[in-house]
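Reviewer 2 asked us to include a model.

Predict the structure of this chain.
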Amino acid sequence: MITKLLAAGFSGVPYLESSALMRKHKAGVAFSTDKPNVIVGPNGSGKSALMQSLALRFLAHFTGSSTFDDKYITSSEAKDWWSKDREWGYDHTWLKGLTCKTDNGPTVYYRPGHIPGNEPSITHAMMTGYFDESKAYARLVENKSSGEQSQAVMAGILSALSGKGMPSSYGYKNWRFGKEPIDLRASNGNGWGYRGSTEYQAEALKTVYEHANGGLPLILMDEPEQSLDARAEATLWSAIAKAKCARVQVIVATHSLYPLLHRDKFHVIESETGFVDSVLALMG
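Predicted model (structure tokens):
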């Protein structure tokens, strides 16, 4: 669960802090736990940047669910997610400048075409340590159109919206740093020894999420309506509108007209003041 997000001095996801969305919500974006949250606005206004930031904050960027993964430290992208106050210091800050009011509940993240490991292909994913996840994904999407693939992958999301099948804790995938926090600055009895930056970053991640279990689960969806036919999209939005918000929190970034036409069912977050009214006016 998350109730507020503020980006100030945050560069981990380009364009989020300077986006129209964050400029409009200067005190931070506030989220509801009573209704599904729907983020709407023009192209390029920061919706997807916000969803990527949330996926990173809840460690769902690579596997689609909250999972400790070496790639948060070792991937080519990771250098943008970490900062140090002192060049030679021990301090490593995860997503510096991104402030969240949250209980760190485990998260499921969906966006069309997302391959395990955030890899460009299923083959790449299998070769980089996501063999089981990639095999399961391949079975779901094999010999299907893009819309059919989205519906197949989304079946689990539709179940989760009713509170079923959501993770209860953070998982581990390709994680070699152990589960318990370690004070790397304490002597091990044989002197201080050398510690690499990756070890300090791993311990920093453990510290951020050490009290994560037990939080209200979160479902993130970034433009889930892509490639869906009208009936499939209506089915999706009906499920989102009926989400069991006592069991899961829902945040969706979308270009769909459905939530604009049914504002009473959602907590609508505009990235531009008056966006919804301007769209409805054009529709007559």
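The two ends are 37 Å apart (CA to CA). The longest strand covers residues 2-7. We have added this to the supplementary material.
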